Amino acid sequence: xxxxxxxxxxxxxxxxxxxxxxxxxxxxxxxxxxxxxxxxxxxxxxxxxxxxxxxxxxxxxxxxxxxxxxxxxxxxxxxxxxxxxxxxxxxxxxxxxxxxxxxxxxxxxxxxxxxxxxxxxxxxxxxxxxxxxxxxxxxxxxxxxxxxxxxxxxxxxxxxxxxxxxxxxxxxxxxxxxxxxxxxxxxxxxxxxxxxxxxxxxxxxxxxxxxxxxxxxxxxxxxxxxxxxxxxxxxxxxxxxxxxxxxxxxxxxxxxxxxxxxxxxxxxxxxxxxxxxxxxxxxxxxxxxxxxxxxxxxxxxxxxxxxxxxxxxxxxxxxxxxxxxxxxxxxxxxxxxxxxxxxxxxxxxxxxxxxxxxxxxxxxxxxxxxxxxxxxxxxxxxxxxxxxxxxxxxxxxxxxxxxxxxxxxxxxxxxxxxxxxxxxxx
Length: 426
Fold this sequence. Notes:
- Helix 1 runs parallel beside helix 6.
- The chain has helices spanning 3-11, 62-70, 77-95, 101-113, 120-140, 143-173, 198-208, 225-237, 249-256, 280-289, 321-336, 399-412, and strands at 13-16, 21-24, 33-36, 41-45, 56-59, 180-184, 213-218, 241-244, 260-263, 267-269, 274-277, 294-298, 303-304, 354-355, 364-365, 371-374, 381-384, 387-389.
- By secondary structure, it is an alpha/beta fold.
- The chain contains twelve helices and 18 strands.
- Helices cover 41% and strands 16% of the residues.
């Protein structure tokens, strides 16, 4: 089955000749990534260029794909999962003339899966692709069949994400009301999925259907995805948006009328805890104080039943450059404008005073975790593509139950479920 053609027709997508990726006709949102099978190239919407420029980046080497995931050219839990599967497909195309292409693909898959450890769908999609295709190879002994299976499952992972985002938006509509002022954090939306997923997908669908809804978008330092990406995405759809910095949650209740929060998510543990962009847990605690509903919206693929509790989730720490870079720009600009002398510092703190260990006298450490974990008692519910789930109900899920729920929705959407795919866990 031509998965990508079917999902394009069903959702109303048309290719943008300049970007070389499809765009959603109703909202004008581009898909986050696409695969050109004729040229064996992965095409990514370059999120590091947003909001200043809308460009794509073409990946022809799997190492470039890993680098693009690490440097957040493509980012967000679902998006990097699909990107991981297609990066493996790019690697397989490179390895097909290797003496052991299947073994080489296994090594590539392991490296891709480790590129960003906290977001569950990256390892999930990459290893699912490899394991499904390896099973075909074991049964047939054909490298060609292995390659065909890898292409088929990669297309399925992309198509099923777009299809399941449709269901996520459908379930989320029941929680959005006329007059809502919804706070978001980071970018949990179309850009973090393949198309209109996560929190913003719910809001974008509601607004496109005539619901009177406004958004308060948190800046989300240090990478400012809320400022750069969420506002770009919502502005493209037309959703009225107010930007606040990260320390303005309480006053947003008092002055802006915030009455609800919907955030995306990177990983859900069995106990109902959720890992998401750093600062999410802080917002949840304040919403508990104000007695306002706090929701996460995420794909079933982020639910990690093997992770017993939130404290077991590995938290990625990122480069301190993400914190210091804006201050270097300020210093250089002040020097250029003559506001400080030519002898003034061009960085802060001075790099020779920064340490990575517990700081001593005169030393500075910069702590830059990418995520934190929200305990289940601060979460009203988790909106997923298999239904709205209370945190305590996550522990009742099983891999088999999720598989059956996903299969039903995929078939209802008009897609074929891949023959031989008997598990959605890895």
